[in-house]
Specification:
Chain lengths: ~120, ~160
């Protein structure tokens, strides 16, 4: 399956909905969207990965790049993911220590709000 | 002789095809369903790395993948033909990356010709492969670099 991207604002935080496969072919589209959102001033991001079917290291690189960009503006990039096969790649690479990973978009937003 | 051999033009779009073929052959070779996701991801990582290396050094040369199911093992070998001017394969040092060591450190430019310039944490792909495959051997040869990965299987094809 190809990659579908959408985004909307919820409680002042930009939520990016990702569906499909994030790999070396499709990851540049996600990267472009994250850059675009940062460029227009969205520094609090939640990437909803509940409908992601495949994620490889290229996709991880894009997420790390997005995190670096928002952090440059004192922002945040949190993830929503409960799929074990996706979470596994974050654990293998040690990135569970880098990203906030939540069970739902509401949880991610609530966690972010509580830190303010 | 491999059960299935394929070679493809080093384009990112073909990596998905390689993943799908590898997963199908693994299933037919008797790899446990619980391991198929690992096979798919590890093969994708190896092919992505090879595609990026080929695009940078030899875009006219195909990436080769051999899939073999024998003797209770399902084996995948992904081979690139990238050789630097000094005769060494233009790739990361084999065994230099351990699972869990791939946190965002240095970055390298991704493949040329992509839709946009992107960055990928260096060696993250190899870290993932080493974390996923049951057995991994990375070999340098004069012809390039090969990543050999295998998983247990129950049937020979």
């Amino acid at each position: 399956m190809d990659l579908k991207l959408d985004h909307h604002t919820k409680d002042g935080i930009e939520v990016v909905d990702v569906e499909g496969e994030i790999d070396v072919y499709t990851a540049p589209r996600l990267r472009e969207l994250l850059i675009e959102l940062v460029n227009v001033g969205h520094y609090q991001l939640v990437v909803n990965m509940e409908k992601v079917e495949f994620l490889d290291s290229t996709g991880l690189g894009v997420l790390v790049g997005g995190l670096k960009r928002v952090r440059a503006h004192d922002g945040s990039l949190d993830l929503v993911c409960t799929q074990e096969r996706i979470l596994k790649i974050f654990r293998i690479t040690g990135l569970t220590k880098v990203f906030g990973i939540h069970d739902s978009v509401d949880d991610a937003i609530a966690a972010r709000k509580s830190e303010k | 002789m491999a059960t299935v051999e394929m070679s493809f033009t080093p384009l990112p779009a073909h990596v998905r095809t390689a993943r799908l073929v590898a997963t199908a052959v693994a299933r037919r070779s008797g790899v446990d369903e619980a391991l198929l996701d690992e096979v798919r991801l590890a093969v994708g990582e190896a092919c992505s790395r090879a595609v990026e290396a080929h695009q940078e050094h030899c875009p006219g040369e195909p990436v080769r993948v051999a899939l073999t199911g024998t003797d209770g093992r399902f084996e995948v070998v992904v081979t690139d033909t990238v050789v630097q001017d000094d005769g060494e394969p233009a790739t990361a040092v084999p065994g230099a990356v351990k699972p869990g060591a791939g946190a965002p450190g240095g970055e390298r430019p991704a493949a040329a010709g992509g839709p946009a310039q992107q960055t990928v944490p260096a060696e993250l792909g190899l870290a993932v492969i080493e974390g996923l495959a049951d057995d991994v051997k990375i070999a340098r040869t004069k012809a390039g670099l090969s990543i050999r990965m295998s998983w247990p299987s129950t049937a020979a094809s």
